[in-house]
């Protein structure tokens, strides 16, 4: 046997290695070297992510909040047409977060996906800035009171330019939304109480920073768009997203970056296919020799939670039909799955009903950037001598969120922890449930306010007038307040819930489900508008949401329908939430993947 001689310098390196406290092998620094505890990660690294989120959301929301008016006034789309374009645009942007999350988990990293996505969004905003600045690239000005000068909506190459810019922005926004939140959350050590506590605070302050960007967007930038021209709004957004790139890069020496682990979706489909095949095989033959594969359970599963926690390789009893995927079948070895893969697939399947339950809430939130803005545009928007742009209405819920987010983190959660004697205090599902309840209240308030607005228009004989109605736009601010509160509870709750519950190999993709829920909500809003108009027209009634004047819409009926649907959605959410078992381990409790897991404890 050959002998190995260790030089003093090598021996010194081996002695110093434990002192470096290297993170798990899943994490590296920006130069792809092993990440070191104390040097990489922590709140300092996450603070760069929070600063970037202020700028990123400013760039996105500055245009999204006012886009419906840009499309109707300058591109000459109808109110419902403008609303559908905005909801489709925002829906696509949020849905593409799944692509960003998937690429970050499987092939690239959250670090590289953010940089690429920011560059793409900058290109899209540059195209929109150019179109807004050059009159030739827009349709002719519409003079509605002049005969022979009808309004022609944008078409041809100008429309191509408009939608190319919009959907390049959507692609960039999707990549950023899918990579930035998990990149920040990955900076904390989840094996310690302090790390989990700081990670929970990070998600709250992520919403806070998101609101800071929104505050600047719906005040300063929207004012610039309405008074100085849309080229200024798009230009400021372009500059802002460009500035966010060097700020993000400044934090590079402090980041710990999770290495990609291959496609998690492939593993899930493999488990489903294996379970289906083995279940069918078991029914057709009673003599099949099978055994449970437990290889690679101990190391990988333990690392997901705590390396010192022993995990018994026994499959859980929920979704039992998937357990057969962990059985060896000599005829098809390519379908062999480990118990770890089976349990991770179970976790993913169990969070989908929760994900589906939040879509209706986000359908309600979609109204903030569509019909609610158009409502305010028909009302008196003056506060004394100051004329407030309708698209600045979100300032009310934004300010409320900025107050509530730190209050929740520093006051409500500590009190809840003392009362419940649990680490979380208020569970993720309780937060989401609170958001659902607030969305129901918001839709009821919106219906009542719209009824009042229509009555004022009727009594003053201003149904066909383009002049502002003698009613303050602050009435519409009520629904913004409730929906803004719902957004705070639901979005922060969803992001932390999906991140902590998902397997480590697909955390970026799982966190992107929060944005995908928003996307589905926006798409569902567009579908709902089209279906309602189609049904009411088929019944030989006046379509509820059709025409060029909002005063002839039956918007109050639409809001009442949303209220009823939200109530039914909340009931089915209770069904799934009360049966959900958390995967994430709290110190001192049983390990995950066992039946002694703590229940969701959703209190209503």
UniProtKB/TrEMBL annotation:
Q: List residues traversing the bilayer.
A: 41-62, 82-104, 111-130, 159-180, 201-224, 230-250, 347-368, 388-408, 429-449, 469-491, 512-535, 558-576
- Reply yes or no: does the keyword Transmembrane helix apply: yes
Q: Single GO cellular component annotation? A: membrane
Q: How does it sit in the membrane?
A: Multi-pass membrane protein
Among Pfam families, the record links this protein to:
PTR2
- The residue range of the signal peptide is none
* Location, primary (coarse class): membrane
> One GO MF term, please?
transmembrane transporter activity
- Which InterPro entries does the UniProt record give? MFS_trans_sf, POT_fam
Give the location in the cell: Membrane
Key words of the record? Membrane, Transmembrane, Transmembrane helix
Q: Which Gene3D superfamilies match?
A: MFS general substrate transporter like domains
- Membership in a protein family: Belongs to the major facilitator superfamily. Proton-dependent oligopeptide transporter (POT/PTR) (TC 2.A.17) family.
Q: What is this protein called?
A: Protein NRT1/ PTR FAMILY 4.6-like isoform X2
Q: Which gene encodes it?
A: LOC111441202
């Amino acid at each position: 046997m050959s002998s190995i001689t260790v030089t003093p310098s090598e021996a010194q390196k081996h002695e110093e290695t434990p002192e470096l406290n290297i993170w798990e092998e899943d994490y590296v620094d920006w130069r792809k070297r092993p990440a070191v505890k104390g040097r990489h990660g922590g709140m300092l690294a996450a603070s760069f992510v929070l600063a970037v989120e202020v700028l990123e959301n400013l760039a996105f929301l500055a245009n999204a909040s006012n886009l419906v008016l840009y499309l109707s006034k300058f591109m000459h789309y109808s109110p419902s047409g403008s609303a559908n374009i905005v909801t489709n645009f925002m829906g696509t942007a949020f849905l593409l977060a799944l692509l960003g999350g998937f690429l970050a988990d499987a092939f690239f990293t959250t670090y590289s996906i953010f940089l690429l996505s920011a560059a793409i969004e900058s290109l899209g905003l540059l195209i929109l800035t150019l179109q807004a600045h050059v009159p030739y690239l827009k349709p002719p000005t519409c003079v509605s009171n002049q005969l022979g000068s009808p309004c022609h909506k944008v078409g041809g190459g100008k429309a191509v330019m408009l939608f190319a810019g919009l959907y390049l922005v959507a692609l960039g926004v999707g990549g950023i939304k899918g990579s930035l939140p998990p990149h920040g959350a990955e900076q904390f050590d989840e094996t310690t109480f302090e790390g989990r506590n700081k990670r929970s605070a990070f998600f709250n302050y992520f919403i806070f920073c998101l609101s800071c960007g929104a505050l600047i967007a719906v005040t300063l930038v929207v004012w610039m768009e309405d008074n100085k021209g849309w080229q200024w709004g798009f230009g400021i957004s372009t500059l802002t997203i460009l500035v966010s790139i060097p700020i993000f890069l400044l934090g590079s020496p402090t980041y710990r970056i999770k290495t990609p682990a291959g496609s998690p979706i492939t593993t899930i489909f493999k488990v489903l296919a294996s379970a289906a095949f083995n279940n069918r095989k078991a029914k057709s033959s009673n003599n099949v020799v099978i055994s449970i594969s437990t290889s690679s359970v101990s190391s990988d599963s333990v690392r997901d939670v705590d390396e010192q926690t022993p995990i018994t390789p026994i499959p859980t009893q929920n979704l039992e039909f998937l357990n057969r995927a962990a059985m060896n079948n000599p005829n098809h070895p390519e379908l062999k799955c480990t118990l770890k893969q089976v349990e991770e697939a179970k976790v993913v399947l169990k969070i989908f009903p929760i994900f589906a339950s939040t879509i209706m809430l986000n359908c309600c939130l979609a109204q903030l950037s569509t019909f609610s803005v158009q409502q305010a545009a028909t009302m008196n928007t003056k506060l004394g001598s100051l004329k407030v742009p309708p698209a600045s209405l979100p300032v009310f819920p934004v300010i409320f969120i900025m107050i509530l987010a730190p209050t929740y983190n520093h006051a409500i959660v500590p009190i809840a922890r003392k009362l419940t004697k649990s680490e979380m205090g208020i569970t993720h599902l309780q937060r989401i449930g609170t958001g659902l309840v607030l969305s129901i209240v918001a839709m009821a308030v919106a219906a009542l306010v719209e009824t009042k607005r229509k009555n004022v228009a009727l009594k003053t004989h201003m149904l066909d007038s383009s002049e502002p109605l003698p009613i303050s736009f602050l009435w519409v601010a009520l629904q913004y307040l409730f929906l803004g509160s719902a957004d705070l509870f639901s979005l922060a709750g969803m992001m932390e819930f999906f991140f902590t519950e998902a397997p480590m190999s697909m955390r970026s993709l799982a966190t992107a489900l929060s944005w995908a829920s928003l996307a589905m909500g926006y798409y569902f809003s567009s579908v709902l508008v089209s279906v309602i108009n189609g049904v009411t027209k088929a019944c030989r009634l006046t379509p509820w949401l059709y025409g060029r004047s909002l005063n002839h819409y039956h918007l109050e009926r639409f809001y009442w329908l949303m209220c009823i649907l939200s109530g039914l959605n909340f009931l089915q959410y209770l069904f799934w939430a009360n049966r959900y078992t958390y995967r994430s381990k709290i110190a001192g409790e049983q390990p995950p993947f066992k039946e002694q897991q703590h229940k969701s404890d959703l209190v209503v």
